[in-house]
Structures are given as C-alpha cells and as structure tokens.
C-alpha cells in the first residue's frame, strides 16, 4: 500500500508547485514527475524503515539521529538544507502509579500500566526505549478519590450527570477517549470539580465490535493493553514563549505563569488502556448510564458512580528545556524567488511513528529525490520551494509554531501556500482538507493522478464516489502544523492523506509489505495535536 499510494500522494503534492505555480511550458515536467520513469518504491520504503526503527520522541537522541538522516537525504539531493534549532519546554514522565480499591471489602488492584509486546515482534529489542505512557504537560501530583464515569468528558456529559444528581466534586473522572481533545477532557473534569482524570480507550470506539473482533497485529483495532498517548496542552508552540520564538537567550515566562494561562491542566491525569478502564468500570456502582454512554455488546453495564471504586493516581513529570530541530530544505525559484510554496511534515513521534508522522516524512523525502531528478532534466521551479520537517509537533505544534513566530513578517508577505502531510498512508482512499483558495487546485491535481487501488479511474473519481459529505474538509482547531501558517499569519493551507483514522498504528513493515510488527500505539484521529 505504501509503495503505490505513497507515490500517488507525492504526485498530488508536487502538483501544487509544478502544475499550478509554473508556466504552461513546464507542464512537461509535471507529466515526467508522475510517470513511472521517476518511480523508485525501494527508496520510500527505505526511508520509512530507517525513520521508524526506533522510538523517537521530541528531544531524544533517536529523534536527533532522525533529523540527521533527513538532513543528509536532502543534502544528497543537492538541496540547500540546514537545521533550525529551538530550546523549548518539554515534559517527560518520571514516575507514575495507579491503584484501584474496588470496594472496602476487596483488596486493592495495582495496574502495571504497560503495553504488551506480542510474540514475534521484530521491534521488541527497542521497545524499552518507548516512554512510559503519559500525557505531555500533565500536572504532577497524587490524588485519591471515588471514580465517576463521565462518558467522553464533554461539557454536555457533565450536564447529564448534574441532571442525574451525580456530584463530581472530589472524584476522579474516568472518561473514554474520542469526540473531543484529551486536553479538554482533563480541563472539563477540573472545572466540574474533579481532582484527577483518567482517559481510557473504549472497545466500542477503538477495539472492534463483537466477540470475534481481532486487534493488532491481526487487524487494525487497538489491543486491550494499547494506550493512546498525547499532549494535554491547549496552546501551540513553547508554553514558556507565547507569541515569540524560543531562540537562544530569549525571555521566558515562568512555569507558574504557564499554569495560570489556562493552557495546561491543573489536576493530574493519565491515559490508560481499554482493559484497565474496563476493570475500573466494573468497580463503579450507582445509576446505570444512558444507552449512548454504554460500551460494546460484550462490555459490562456502565454505571456512573461515584464509587464505590476508589483510585489512587500518582504522577510525577519532569520539565526540561530541550533542544528541538527543524530540518529545512530550499530550492530557489528562478522567476519569483521571493514567493514561497511550503511543504511540511513533522518527524517526532510518541513511539515509532510509522503512520503518524513518518509515512509523511518518507513522502517528503521522496518528493525531494524526485525534484532532484527533475532538476537534472533541466526543470527549475518558478517560485521558491521550502521543504520543512518539523520537530515536537506532538507536544503542541512546537517546531512549526516557533519557526512561524520567528519569521512571521517574512512568511506573511511571501508565502503562497502551505501543504501539510502527517499520515500520508494509513489505508486506501484520498482525503483532503484546506482553505477555499486551494479547492480547485486539489480537484485539478487529483484528476490527473491514477487511483493506486483501481487503475481504471483517477484519484478524483475515487474521491467523489467515496464521500457522502463535502468533498474537501475545512481546517479548524490545531490539528497539525498548518495551524501556525493558517491561523497566525493567514497563509492558504491544505492537509492531505490516504486512509481515514487508524485505531492502532501500523509499522513500516506492515505498510510496505503487509507483514506484522510493532504493537505499541500512537494516538489515532487528529483531533488536536495528535
């Protein structure tokens, strides 16, 4: 799937700066770009395998090595490439524990908080490099309280509990992931009076329906021990430099000021697995939850509590000013060198990142290599092309936001468009969201590229047949690195991918050859900063 679909994505993405931003005589190069003569499926597969061989969270040595690989690949393409570094506030787990006392007469249950590695996992040798499951920027602390089940943790869910006469004050909220950003789940719990929050992955949403449902590595569904990790920071960029770049020697606000900003939670929180969440649910009594609050067919009956189950949640995180590295590549335009077409993807991942984001990184590098081949044939871009590989996106769109803040005036006056891809391939079917200025271009480009799953039709024909709503979605929230370009400086933007949401991340091996690997879970569905 990655071989064919990834190559198709490359053709679509590059159409933006070859087809649209070049004069008609250069249309020959667009045809050359999407022809089989420039195709090299082995290279994109190699990129993905190299980038995802080890976990590479932002600020780690493994991620710095991944940055060096991206830099060397761009440089080998004779592209002017360099690293732009920023020193930003990141957090890492130091210690954590979770204990449940189901009732006063029952012994406590201590959860091991581990994601299981399946037999034969070829990445088992580096699995211990994965960070313990946590929420980035979670509040450190220790809380003990009865559990209340709050459905998805939305404002309306707390309204329902109030109507039922359930008092959330002094409790630990148990919410299932989905519907809203996890940071809002924790914030809503705090505002309702809870002293802590647990966010679990419900089988109904991510585990597959029915008793015969299979999960990764046998299917796409989240395994019982899988945990969705991610940030709970509601802002973007370095929390200690709101509105300005985190350059060397810059002014910073204090951690206390960060907490008072309202962008980081004020109660401890922790992501947990579906299996652990279900164990806690079995300890909750009280009124039966509404039908649309219930779980899958074979799940226990969900009740809202509070208690009698009581949890002891302890989390201690460490805050570090760490160096992050954006890798930038520039191909200067010959007619309008002061106008920029920007293609971006982030590199950092909570675990291995085979779908999010490194299927997109592999695509970015393949674009660079194909552009080099075009240059050898005499092609030169009309406008300057900037290839961006961002760092620390998972923490809060940090690398891209810092770069936009540092170059705000220049980009606001010169950037033509920003094209983003994180999850280049998670399955079949093309999807795109963007600002209206790019609608016609998206349609035109997809009409010229063959559908990788059906050679008798174009991507556009597949696209219009597969959607029941608007063909092109709109970019909202802070879903990915387009946010700083669109929302801070008003640059037209698009976000593209093949495949819809993925409950569990596939591996490079699975994407390339449909083999099995890697049980460790990335955060699915880009609701915010995923």
UniProtKB/TrEMBL annotation:
Every Peptidase M28 domain range: 326-505
Signal peptide feature range: 1-15
Residue span, PA domain: 144-229
Annotated transmembrane regions: none
UniProt lineage: Eukaryota, Viridiplantae, Streptophyta, Embryophyta, Tracheophyta
InterPro entries named in the record: PA_dom_sf, PA_domain, Peptidase_M28, Peptidase_M28B
Alphabetical keyword list: Glycoprotein, Signal
GO molecular function (one): carboxypeptidase activity
KW rRNA processing (keyword) present: no
One protein family per Pfam: Peptidase_M28
Family membership: Belongs to the peptidase M28 family. M28B subfamily.
The protein, known as: Peptidase M28 domain-containing protein
């Amino acid at each position: 799937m990655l071989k064919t679909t990834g190559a198709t994505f490359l053709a679509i993405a590059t159409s933006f700066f070859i087809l649209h931003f070049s004069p008609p005589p250069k249309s020959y190069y667009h045809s050359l770009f999407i022809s089989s003569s420039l195709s090299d499926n082995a290279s994109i597969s190699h990129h993905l395998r190299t980038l995802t061989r080890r976990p590479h969270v932002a600020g780690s040595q493994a991620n710095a090595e991944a940055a060096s690989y991206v830099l060397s690949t761009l440089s080998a393409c004779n592209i002017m490439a360099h690293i732009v570094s920023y020193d930003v506030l990141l957090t890492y787990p130091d210690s954590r524990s979770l204990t449940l006392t189901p009732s006063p007469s029952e012994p406590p249950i201590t959860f091991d908080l581990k994601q299981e590695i399946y037999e034969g996992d070829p990445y088992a040798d580096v699995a211990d490099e994965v960070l313990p499951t946590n929420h980035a920027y979670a509040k450190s602390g220790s809380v003990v309280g009865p559990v209340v089940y709050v459905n998805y943790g939305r404002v309306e869910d707390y309204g329902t509990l109030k109507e039922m006469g359930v008092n959330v004050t002094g409790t630990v909220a148990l919410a299932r992931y989905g519907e809203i950003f996890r940071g809002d789940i924790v914030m809503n719990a705090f505002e309702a009076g809870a002293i802590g929050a647990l966010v679990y992955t419900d089988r109904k949403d991510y585990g597959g329906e029915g008793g015969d449902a299979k999960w990764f590595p046998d299917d796409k569904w989240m395994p019982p021990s899988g945990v969705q990790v991610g940030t709970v920071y509601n802002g973007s960029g370095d929390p200690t430099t709101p509105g300005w770049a985190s350059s060397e020697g810059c002014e910073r606000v204090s951690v206390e000021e960060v907490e008072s900003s309202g962008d980081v939670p004020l109660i401890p929180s922790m992501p947990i697995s579906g299996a652990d969440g279900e164990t806690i649910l079995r300890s909750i009594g009280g009124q039966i939850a509404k039908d649309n609050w219930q779980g899958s067919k074979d799940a226990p009956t969900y009740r809202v509590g509070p208690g009698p189950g009581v949890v002891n949640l302890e989390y201690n995180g460490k805050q570090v000013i760490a160096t992050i590295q954006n890798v930038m590549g520039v191909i200067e335009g010959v007619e309008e060198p002061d106008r920029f077409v920007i293609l971006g993807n982030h590199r950092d991942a909570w675990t291995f990142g085979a779908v999010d984001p490194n299927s997109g990184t592999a695509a970015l590098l393949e674009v660079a290599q194909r552009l080099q081949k075009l240059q050898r044939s005499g092609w030169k871009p009309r406008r300057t092309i900037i290839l961006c590989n961002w760092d620390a996106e998972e923490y809060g769109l940090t690398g891209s936001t810092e770069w936009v803040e540092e170059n705000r005036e220049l980009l606001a006056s010169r950037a033509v468009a920003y094209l983003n891809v994180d999850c280049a391939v998670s399955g079949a079917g093309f999807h795109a969201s963007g600002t209206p200025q790019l609608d016609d271009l998206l349609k035109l480009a997809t009409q010229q590229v063959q559908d990788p799953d059906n050679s008798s039709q174009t991507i556009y024909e597949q696209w219009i047949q597969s959607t029941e709503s608007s063909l092109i979605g709109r970019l909202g929230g802070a879903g990915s690195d387009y946010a700083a370009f669109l929302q801070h400086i008003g640059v037209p933007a698009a976000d593209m991918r093949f495949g819809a949401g993925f409950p569990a991340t596939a591996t490079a091996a699975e994407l390339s050859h449909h083999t099995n690997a890697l049980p460790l879970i990335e955060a699915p569905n880009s609701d915010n900063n995923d």
